[in-house]
Amino acid sequence: MSAANQERLYQVILAPIISEKGTFIADKYEQVAFRVATDATKPEIKAAVEFLFKVQVDSVQVLNVKGKQKRFGRFTGRRKDWKKAYVCLKPGQQIEFASGE
């Protein structure tokens, strides 16, 4: 794997989504939710998760989240649109974000 390609894999995954829904899908469906770069593709996301977390990925579902309209006094603004990825892991695989130390 080239250094430029490896650098791109580090930029694809921005953050895990730790929420009530995120923990529910992790337990029930062996999936993990990530906030990803808006220009990331499914093969890139799969390669990045396998490279960073040393797990095997079964499939990837991607959705675009629209930014909310927000007001500050009489000024209206808009939050940025972003992309979310649900990564389905192969059976027996697991990604642990919080270690119980």
Quick structural overview:
This protein is of the alpha+beta class and 101 residues long.
What does this structure look like?
The protein has 101 residues and is of the alpha+beta class. It is 32% helix and 35% strand. It contains 3 helices and 6 strands. The chain has helices at 3-12, 20-29, 42-53, and strands at 13-16, 31-36, 57-65, 69-72, 75-78, 82-89. The chain has a 4-stranded antiparallel β-sheet. Strand 4 and strand 5 form a beta hairpin. The longest helix has 12 residues, at 42-53. It is globular and about 50 Å long.
Characteristics of this structure?
101 residues, four-stranded antiparallel sheet, 3 helices, two-stranded antiparallel sheet, alpha+beta
Q: What is this structure's SSE topology?
A:
Layout: H1 3-12, E1 13-16, H2 20-29, E2 31-36, H3 42-53, E3 57-65, E4 69-72, E5 75-78, E6 82-89
Antiparallel strand pairs: 1-2, 2-6, 3-6, 4-5
Fraction of residues in β-strands: 25-35%
Fraction of helical residues: 25-40%
Radius of gyration over alpha carbons?
16 Å
* H and E order: HEHEHEEEE
Anisotropy-based shape? globular
Q: Return the structural class.
A: alpha+beta
Task: Please give the order of strands in the largest beta sheet.
Answer: 1-2-6-3
Uncertain regions spanning at least 5 consecutive residues? none
Distance between the termini: 34 Å
User: How can the largest sheet be summarized?
Assistant: 4 strands, antiparallel
